[in-house]
Specification:
The C terminus is likely disordered. By secondary structure, the chain is α/β, with parallel strands linked by helices. Strands 6-7-8-9-10-11-12 form a 7-stranded parallel β-sheet. Strands 1, 2, 3, 4 and 16 form a 5-stranded antiparallel β-sheet that branches. It has a two-stranded antiparallel sheet with strand order 5-14. It is 33% helix and 23% strand. It folds into 2 domains: 150 residues, 2-Layer Sandwich (Enolase-like, domain 1), CATH 3.30.390.10; 221 residues, Alpha-Beta Barrel (TIM Barrel). It is globular, with a radius of gyration of 20 Å. It contains 13 helices and 16 strands. 2-succinylbenzoate (OSB) binds next to loops.
């Protein structure tokens, strides 16, 4: 059966700032507001949504708000207007001339996947071929003011029903923190994420972390330190999980071949979309590695995409996909993700990402909006123009 093609008419690109319910601190900084870029692709009466959960500064990755807007508005979106596509797999050939900028690509590809699933009349996870009905998820807890506060947060999330905890660590907030967690919660499934804060000179500390029954240690070393991760892996019993280092398909393949990872955190934004993410998950599973779906404090749009991806059988560990209320007082989609029994999120029945984007709320939170393509209807004139009219940051 030939798959339907649809012609891309308009692409809406919106930079939003969503206030977080509490600050999120990692080894690379503190966020109190989540910057994110929403992409809406209009094609023949359907609209698909994708998200680039960027940071305001190039800290987690080289991508930031301004670079991602630039590449979307000036290169990727113009290349797609008027093209007839079948689905997200077609993006690669259409934008072959643009190198890198995977957050931007992933947002567009996500919108195309949402469209393709809607055109097929299927929820996105079914369009991907997944069969699960619910997904076990965990919560990622930022660095806290003190150990007592962290233990309280963990107890609170376990009481809510989450079955897996990830804690952020950094030099000085590591061994004693894990000791305290294990003293109170000896059996909880625990990940520790260093966001690249250590080097091999910290081997004694990393060896001490190895004694606390971690399910995995995420990105202990620098994002380009593949060889050092491979060396560290040989020294530790805890599986080393890569996040920042897996910045795209080729480097991910190299990392896996080098033996630099015992587990992988898969993020569509970092990989450049669901197509590359699904391939990496497959490849990691063939090598026997554990796989989970990461998160970047996404709005409900990115979360719905993460949920569909995490429904695939290659995802073996609970993902960083928490309920909406763990991040935002009010999400931009309806219904917001709610934690169900067994620490699970349910997959939607509706076609595509299966949630409705609350456009009024998006308009309120928008710092900047640009529509690329045929005459835009229904956009506020003040929010359609160059990047110069972005609000204060
Ligand atoms: O390293 O996994 C990370 C958030 C922003 C940037 C990087 C990371 C994270 C998280 C949060 O850990 C996961 C979530 O969305 O809940
Ligand atoms: Mg991480």
């Amino acid at each position: 059966m030939a798959r339907a093609r649809w012609r891309i008419e308009r692409i809406h690109i919106t930079h939003l700032r969503l206030p977080l319910v509490r600050p999120f601190e990692t080894s690379f900084g503190v966020e109190t507001v989540k910057d994110t870029i929403l992409v809406r692709v209009d094609a023949e009466g359907l609209s698909g949504f994708g998200e680039a959960p960027v940071h305001g500064r190039p800290s987690y990755s080289a991508d930031d708000v301004v670079t991602t807007l630039h590449v979307l508005e000036d290169f990727l979106a113009p290349a797609l207007i008027g093209r007839s596509l079948c689905g997200p797999e077609d993006l690669e050939s259409e934008v072959a001339g643009v190198r890198g900028h995977r957050f931007a690509r992933a947002a567009l590809e996500g919108a195309l996947a949402d469209l393709a699933a809607q055109a097929a009349g299927l929820p996105l996870f079914r369009y991907y071929g997944a069969r699960r009905e619910r997904i076990a998820v965990g919560v990622s807890i930022g660095i806290q003011p003190n150990r007592g506060a962290l233990l309280e947060r963990i107890a609170g999330h376990l009481a809510e029903g989450y079955g897996r905890i990830k804690v952020k660590i950094k030099p000085g907030w590591d061994v004693a923190v894990l000791e305290a967690i294990r003293a109170h919660f000896p059996a909880v499934m625990l990940f520790a994420d260093a966001n690249a804060a250590y080097t091999l000179r910290d081997l004694p500390v990393l060896e001490a972390l190895d004694r606390h029954g971690l399910a995995l240690l995420e990105q202990p070393l620098g994002h380009e330190d593949l060889l050092d991760h491979a060396r560290l892996r040989a020294r530790l019993a805890t599986p080393i999980c890569l996040d920042e280092s897996l910045a795209g398909p080729a480097v991910s393949r190299a990392a896996l071949r080098l033996g630099a990872a015992g587990a992988v955190n898969i993020k569509m934004a970092r990989m450049g979309g669901s197509v590359a993410s699904r391939r990496l998950a497959r490849c990691a599973r063939r090598l026997g590695l554990a796989v989970f779906c990461g998160g970047m404090l996404e709005s409900g749009v990115g979360r719905a995409h993460n949920l569909a991806l995490a429904a695939l059988p290659d995802f073996t560990l609970p993902g960083d996909i928490s309920a909406a209320d763990r991040y935002y007082r009010e999400d931009i989609v309806d219904p917001p993700a709610r934690l169900g029994p067994g620490g699970c999120l349910a997959l939607p029945d509706a076609p595509g990402i299966g949630v409705t984007v609350l456009e009024d709320r998006v308009a309120v939170l928008a710092q900047h909006r640009r529509v690329v393509g045929a005459a835009a209807c229904g956009t506020r004139p003040g929010h359609s123009g160059g990047r110069g009219d972005r609000g204060p940051e």
